[in-house]
Amino acid sequence: MIRVLLADDQSLVRAGFRALLDAQPDIEVVAEAADGEEAVRSIRELRPDVVLMDIRMPLRDGLAATREVTGDPELHDVKVVMLTTFELDEYVFEAIRSGASGFLVKDTEPEELLRAVRAVVDGDALLSPGVTRRLIAEFAARSKEPAAAAEMARLTEREREVMALVGIGLSNEEIARRLVVSPLTAKTHVSRTMVKLGARDRAQLVVLAYESGLVRPGWLG
């Protein structure tokens, strides 16, 4: 059972998401929060698998709440998906850099929301269908904290190649086809790269790919 916490200051949004999620046999909404402070308290108490976190909330916004959650080693297994009202939200990339596993626009299709919850539990990065890789590149270009050269030096040539492909948005299956290897081998390379770089999840690996210069804005593969 995937345990989900909803954090949004709009009760109607929470009610809609809860109705959809609770109707699934493998998903359970364990709590709701109307502001960032309440969200953090509930996350510490309940340790949900996934948090759907609105970016703009009173008392403490979603970015600050996310940084607190992802910065706590005891909450390492909690995955945060940011909710935005507009696809071009200026905080989208900052949300991923803050540790979020991805983001969705609030009017996303029900099937996409369900896929998102299940995907982040499996360790995949989650990008709203309406947000293109070119948009991610735009935000990545603004990064001011390049990855340490020493960290990148830990990677093998194949791992750097795989990381670059992750950075341009390819799935494990697409990487496998590109490199002519099995999906399991591609997944293993991605996992080892994440461990070596200390990346929390695939989303942060994408960020590091841009910050290190391994992938440059505008490259779409």
UniProtKB/TrEMBL annotation:
Modified residues (4-aspartylphosphate): D54
Alphabetic keyword roster: DNA-binding, Phosphoprotein, Transcription, Transcription regulation
Signal peptide residue numbers: none
Gene3D superfamilies, A to Z: 3.40.50.2300
Regions that span the bilayer: none
Domain of life: Bacteria
Location of the HTH luxR-type domain: 148-213
Response regulatory domain mapped to chain residues: 3-121
InterPro entries per record: CheY-like_superfamily, NreC/VraR/RcsB-like_REC, Sig_transdc_resp-reg_C-effctor, Sig_transdc_resp-reg_receiver, Tscrpt_reg_LuxR_C, WalR-like
Pfam families associated with the record: GerE (PF00196), Response_reg (PF00072)
PANTHER family associated with the record: TRANSCRIPTIONAL REGULATORY PROTEIN NARL-RELATED, TWO-COMPONENT RESPONSE REGULATOR
Name of the protein in question: Response regulator
Organism: Streptomyces salinarius
Lineage: Bacteria, Bacillati, Actinomycetota, Actinomycetes, Kitasatosporales
